[in-house]
Amino acid sequence: MQSWIDFHENKTEEQIFSEVEFIGYDGAKWKAELVDIALQLIYHSIHHRAQMQMLIRQQGMEPDFIDYIGTKYRKIF
């Protein structure tokens, strides 16, 4: 997590919205804005988290609360 934070803290807005080249899963060369690659990583992880929760519910169980913020909230009594 820290390396992800460090990566973003060292980028200018111009760099974040610049295009980068990469090799895709199909072996072809692709281009995309860095910001879109970051969003894809986030959205893809959300997709898999939802898949796992659905599978758990299909087994008749209730999945744990797994949102990131759930690890950060602290109830005040």
Coarse structural class: alpha+beta
Strand content: 5-15%
User: What is the first-to-last residue Cα distance?
Assistant: 30 Å
Proportion of helical residues: 40-55%
Q: So what's the overall shape?
A: flat
Oligomer: single chain
Please render the helix and strand layout as text:
Blueprint: H1 2-9, H2 13-16, E1 19-23, E2 29-33, H3 34-58
Antiparallel strand pairs: 1-2
Describe, in short, the structure shown.
The chain is built from three helices and two strands; from the N terminus they run H-H-E-E-H.
Can you describe this structure?
Helix content is 48%, strand content 13%. By secondary structure, the chain is α+β, with helices and mostly antiparallel strands. A two-stranded antiparallel sheet has the order 1-2. The longest helix is centred in the middle third of the chain and has 25 residues, at 34-58.
Overview features:
77 residues, alpha+beta, two-stranded antiparallel sheet, 3 helices
